[in-house]
Amino acid sequence: MLGSSRASGHGKEFPCVLGSSHASGHGKEFPGGLGSSPVSGMHRAVKPIPRFTAQNHVILMVAANNMDVLVVEDDPRIARVVERALTDVGHRVEVAHDGLEGLTSAERGTHDLVVLDVMLPEMDGIEVARELRRQRLRTPILMLTARDAVPDRVRGLDAGADDYLTKPFALEELLARVRALGRRASDGNDDQLTVADLVLDLARHEARRAEHSIELTAKEFDLLAYLMRHTGRVLSKDQITEHVWGYDSQATSNVVEIYIHYLRDKIDRGFARPLIRTVRGVGYTIKD
User: Fold this and answer.
1) Residue 71 contacts residue 82 (beta carbons within 8 Å)
2) Nearest to residue 90, comparing CAs of 67, 115, 116, 114?
3) How far is Cα 78 from Cα 178, in angstroms, rounded to an integer?
4) Mean pLDDT of 21-46
5) Cis bond leading into 140, ω under 30°?
6) Strand bridging mode 141-145 / 163-166
7) How far apart are CA 10 and CA 6, in angstroms?
8) CATH no. for residue 130?
9) How far is CA 156 from CA 108, 133, 201, in A?
10) Mean pLDDT of the chain
11) Is the predicted pLDDT of residue 17 greater than 70, yes or no?
12) Is the pTM here over 0.85, yes or no?
């Protein structure tokens, strides 16, 4: 059973505690509570989440730092609850249900964070993390596992995980670790993004190419920053819409096309080498 509390003013049930244990004869991880134990195949949450109040509503206020999160979890119940917890606080979430699917999604390099279970079919989380690091993909990885022995944690961290969360866990701790990894990644970012002779100054909110200043609207700046943060990677219209306009935005794919046209007119017009490219049927990319 999942403990839950209503977020004040939101009217949503917010599941709070996930855990894992091995039900007799199944050996399958599934949600439970902190300190839960098998009771006729069911698990009982014993630690309720605190109610969201004015003092702790910061958990809900992450819109300024919302991220694209990939959740790789084969248990549909755990995946569903984690996805809901993350989307409820403003993150955009993609879910993969086995290691190979997760690796394929993560290889696109379009996520800000990967929440990665260890015990996965097809390819375990350790191998997924190791392969991502072998490809020099630096996306932060938060690893989830029921194995809490020190050697298991060391193995995960050595494979490339940035943090480790042992099941069972409270969702508020998961969200706190997600925020911490997001801050860590942001702190490591330069104040400038550069592609060829195009420079985007994030601190001053300025753009220039070949030392020529470029005037951008706020939305054009956000779109260009998103493209430049993922230099060389093709971003779909849906990804762009969700990241730049927001998950609940009514913006259509035509809006993306229009703003790409605006950017091309400002970034590439007059230059022999265009930087913004269209990959037909897939999306857009920026590269030298």
Assistant:
1) yes
2) 67
3) 16
4) 37
5) no
6) parallel
7) 7
8) 3.40.50.2300
9) 22, 12, 36
10) 78
11) no
12) no
Q: Based on the domain organization, do 21 and 158 belong to the same domain? A: yes
Element (H, E) at 32: none
How many other C-beta atoms can be found within 10 angstroms of the C-beta atom of residue 197?
A: 14
Domain end, chosen from 188, 216, 240, is at 188
CB hemisphere CA count around 122 (13 angstroms): 14
95 with 68: CB under 8 angstroms? no
Q: What percent of the chain has pLDDT over 70?
A: 73
Do 234 and 167 have their domain in common? no
Q: 255-281: buried (b, 16+ CB within 10 Å) or exposed (e) per residue? A: bbeebbebbbebbbeeeeeebbeeeee
Place of tokens 């809006």: 255
**Alpha-helix runs per DSSP H in 209-271:** 218-229, 237-240, 253-267
pLDDT tens per residue across span 162-213: 898 998 889 999 999 999 888 776 655 557 889 999 999 887 889 999 989 9
213-241 per-position pLDDT tens digit: 999 998 899 899 999 988 888 999 988 88
Which range of residues forms the domain containing residue 251? 192-286
Distance in angstroms (rounded) separating the CA atoms of residues 207 and 213: 6
Last residue of a domain, one of 153, 188, 223: 188
> How far lies 210's CA from each of 124, 188, 195, in Å?
46, 26, 11
Residue 33's pLDDT is: 40
The pairing of beta strand 212-214 with beta strand 113-117: unpaired
